[in-house]
Amino acid sequence: MIDQKLLEILACPACDERPPVRLKEDRLVCSVCRRAYPIREGIPVMLVDEATIEPEEEAESGAASASAPRDGKAA
Predict the structure, then answer these.
(1) Which of 8, 42, 44, 58 shows the greatest Cβ crowding within 10 Å of its Cβ?
(2) Exposure of 10 in the CB half-sphere (CA atoms within 13 A)
(3) Cβ contacts of residue 30 below 8 Å, gap of 6+?
(4) 19 or 38, which is more confident
């Protein structure tokens, strides 16, 4: 489990939004660009190259809003 204090300080490296990420199963998802960062052995892997793009309907569940990635590229 990821510590709540860590979640409060993490920023999405792709769009640098805060609070950017929320815990969703085995990954952290940015509510702005929808990038999903894996959690491996309890450690968030906050590397853009390791991220995937969440489908819009999945990214929006539990989030106020989500927008398309700023660079327009999928992972």
Answers:
(1) 44
(2) 22
(3) 12, 14, 15, 17, 20, 21, 36, 37
(4) 38
- Here the tokens at position 49 are 């190259």
Cβ neighbors of 17 (< 8 A, separation 6 or more) are 11, 30, 31, 32, 33
Higher pLDDT, 37 or 7: 37
Q: Distance from CA of residue 3 to its chain's centroid?
A: 16
Full set of structural domains in the chain with CATH: 4-60 (2.20.25.10)
Residue 2: pLDDT band (50, 70, 90) is: confident
Residue 72, Ramachandran bin (φ over 0: left; ψ between -120 and 50: alpha; else beta): left
DSSP 2-26: --HHHHHH---TTT--SS-EEEETT
Backbone angles phi, psi at 28, to 5 degrees: -110, 130
